[in-house]
Every structure is written in C-alpha cells, then in structure tokens.
Amino acid sequence: VGGISLHGADDKDISIEAGQVVLTANHDTAASIKLHADAGTSQTIQLLNDAGTASTAIDIEATAGGFSIDGVQASNITVASAGDADDLTISVTGANDASLILASAGTGTDAMSLDVTAGDMVIAPSLADGKTLKLGKNGAVEMVFTPHGTAGNEKFLLTNTAGTADDAIKLTSVAGGVTIHAGNDSLIIDADGTDADALNIDSA
Chain-centre distance of CA 125, in angstroms? Predict the structure, then answer.
C-alpha cells in the first residue's frame, strides 16, 4: 500500500537488468515518471541503445498530447548517416491548420542558418497549385512564387513596397551580362518617375 524507494551511496551505482524493463505510472499527476540528476554540472542523463538498428531504436511518443524538449545551453540533433537514405525528417502530418515553425530570437548575422555543404538545396519542390511561397517581409521587400494549374495565373513577383532609392530593386552582374527575355508575350518597361533620367538605358 506504500511506495518503494531505492537509494545508493552518492558514488555508487544502482543497476536494473532484465529481459524487458517497463516503467508504468498509474498516478494522474505531473512528472509521474521523472528522471532527475541534480548533484553537479557534469551530470548527464543518457538514453542509449547500442545494439538496435531499426529507425525506432529509441522511440519517444506522445499518443494523446504533445512533447517538449528544452535546453539553456548549446544543443543539437545529429544523424551521423552511414549510408544513402539515412535522412533526418521533421514533419507535421494531418490535414489540419497546423504549422511547422522554426524561429530564432538570436541577434547574430546567422541567427538562422540553412546550409548545405555538398549536395543541392530545394525549397518547396511540392508546393501545391494555388499556394504561395513567400520570402521576405510583407509590405516591405518580398518575393512571392505562385504556381498554378492555370498558366495565366502562374506568377513570380519581386516587390519593394516602400523603398525610394534609385536602386530599390537592383540586379547586378559584376563580370558577366544580364539577360531579360520575354517569350511569346510583351516586355513592359514602365517608369513613373519625374527625374530627368526617369527612364535611362545606357551602354558604354
């Protein structure tokens, strides 16, 4: 009718070994199962499976609620791939108004960094028709990709809403050329400026 407590000396181990070990908590309370280390800054809590080779060798599931992983020092999730298709997948499933949010409050020039060192990078390769891919701040400088099943509605837009400088949008090729090509339709160059060189096409 009472509890069970296991205690060992501070510098001694407690070992539990069996064919299968199951921890079950039947008390409806917060922290009903708790792994706690509180004796020093060098302590670690380690979940180790050094024999299982399945993709679920270590499996953490919440079948009814969510889960939270928090740290206050540098942290990482790493897959040391041993072969092709050893992927790291972070996904949100289910056709609901749910989001995958990556956010950073860092103040450095690399507060968020997406990088590849050997292969290619693809962003939104399966973007559905009628949906948009937006880069930049809405109402400021923004790039919008809009695939569509109707050719007349498929568009690419680069907008600077508030910038007033002569180079508010600037395309520069330092050593090579720049090609602007309109296929079987119009090429429109429209300047509403009132400067003496409101439309300036110059060649050396």
Answer: 15
What is the tens place of the pLDDT at every residue in 18-77? 999 999 999 999 999 999 988 888 999 999 999 999 989 999 999 999 999 999 999 999
134, β-bridge pairs: 144
**Sheet with strand 141-146: strands edge to edge:** 133-136, 141-146, 155-160
Residue 149's CB is within 10 A of a number of other CB atoms, namely: 9
What's the chain's length in residues?
204
| Rounded Cα gap, residues 202 and 168, in angstroms | 19
pLDDT in tens, 80-130: 999 999 999 999 999 999 999 999 999 999 999 999 999 999 999 999 999
Pull the structure tokens for residue 6.
């296991």
The full DSSP string for 78-109 is -----STT--------SSSS----------ST
What tokens were used for 13?
Answer: 């181990």
